[in-house]
Amino acid sequence: MYASRIDLLSRRSLLRRLRTIDGAPRAEVKIDGRRILLFSSNNYLDLATHPKVIEAATAAIRRYGVGAGASRLISGTLAPHVELEEQLAAFKGAEAALVFSTGYHANLGLIQTLAEDASTIYADRLSHASLIDACRSCKPPLRIFRHREASQLRALLASKYQKAAVILTDGVFSMDGDLAPLPALLSVAESTSAQLVVDDAHGTGVMGPEGRGTAEHFGLKSAALIQMGTLSKALGAFGGFVTGTRDLITYLVNRARPFIYTTALPPAMAAAASAALEIIQGEPERRARLWFLRERLDQGLKTMGYGTLGSESPIMPILVGDVAAALRLSDHLLAQGIYAPAIRPPTVPSSSSRIRITVTAGHTSGHIDHLLEALSMLRGTDRQLWDRLTNPTRIARREGRKRSSPSL
Q: Can you tell me the distance from the alpha carbon of 184 to that of 146, in angstroms, rounded to the nearest whole number?
């Protein structure tokens, strides 16, 4: 049964295979014995290998062991969890925080709990899969609004009486790199007594003057705003969290099933994340370097005529459209010593396959220039692909189709 399905995926250029990276997720890694530049990691601030983060994790293992041994409500709550939650609450400007074993669990537990009192859940069309999956497990109906269109959301909410509606969005959209219009969404939420949940997995540590996330980037603070995030991207560790009012966090402890029935986050990961938070606040030059490199890449891509879907973050997508062409571009980059795999359906909507480039503080100007040079080589080696990627009319047409893609 599975052999025929695998064959079908292969014929559609949708079959995925695991590729082993040799070494830590630095800017330079080894794949199949070759030195490769890694341009697909979410280790934005290069903290996964920071000596202080490693030492914090190592010290926690020596003191607490590897695993927590139980769920948080049994005997799994350890000092590193409590310390991290206090830090996260202060960092996000919230009353309290709760750490989950994964970001997926955080979204699942949070949304299932909020859904107890919601009549309807509204989600941006391009919200992360964990948000959509969480909604599908809930009783209230899910309504999708067009990507970043707060006006349509307001119209949907005004169309009928709503009881404690929940609005969901990414802060930074993981496959597009653009930002949610949080001020407009928060205005809708506050005027309709709804709750706005922001998945800030890709914004935490990156966005805002102090790296506190997308809400800080827009200067927002509201009781209607609930922030979720991960410890596995800019913080370089592992796990997820929710920040909000103290009553919300207390209720999640008692009702969020993924929190109640999962073994606690390993204490070493909590300690590593705590160290990362201190570095983020104590070494702002890391974030400044990340943004310098991001702007260097952005300007280089624009000079060559590449479109990046209006990215406003270190996530820089190059929209290709056709699956086979996206694979061809990925193969070309790999041949030039750059790993940036093709992103294909169902991760992105049909006809919007792309290369998702991510910049980190661990890259150098030389790395960025090498990537740009590899992309410019297409003009001479694959003119058809070059024209597809740099023709302004085609780019506008492809991006228009992508923006009006079917709902998830």
A: 14
b/e per residue 328-341 (b: at least 16 CB within 10 A): bbbebbbeeebbbb
Query: CA 75, CA 263: separation in Å to the nearest integer?
Result: 9
- The per-residue pLDDT for range 83-111, each reduced to its tens digit, is 999 999 999 999 999 999 999 999 999 99
Active site residue 174: yes
Choose the catalytic residue: 202, 363, 367, 402: 202
Closest CA to 308 of 357, 344, 273: 357
Closest CA to 317 of 37, 40, 44: 40
3-state helix, strand, coil in the chain (%, to 5): 45, 15, 40
52 belongs to the catalytic site: no
d(C-alpha 360, C-alpha 22), whole Å: 18
CA distance 199 to 265: 19
Q: Provide the pLDDT confidence category of residue 164 given band limits of 50, 70 and 90.
A: confident
- Are 349 and 406 in contact by the 8 Å Cβ rule? The answer is yes
Report which secondary-structure segment, H or E, holds 303. Answer: helix 284-304
* Distant-in-sequence contacts of 184-187, Cβ < 8 A, 24+ apart: 184/150, 184/151, 185/150, 185/153, 186/220, 186/222, 186/224, 186/225, 187/150
105, 147, 233, 332: the active-site residue:
233
**φ and ψ at 54, to 5 degrees?**
-65, -45
Please pick, among 130, 174, 311, 353, the residue that the annotation labels catalytic. 174
| pTM, to two decimals | 0.93
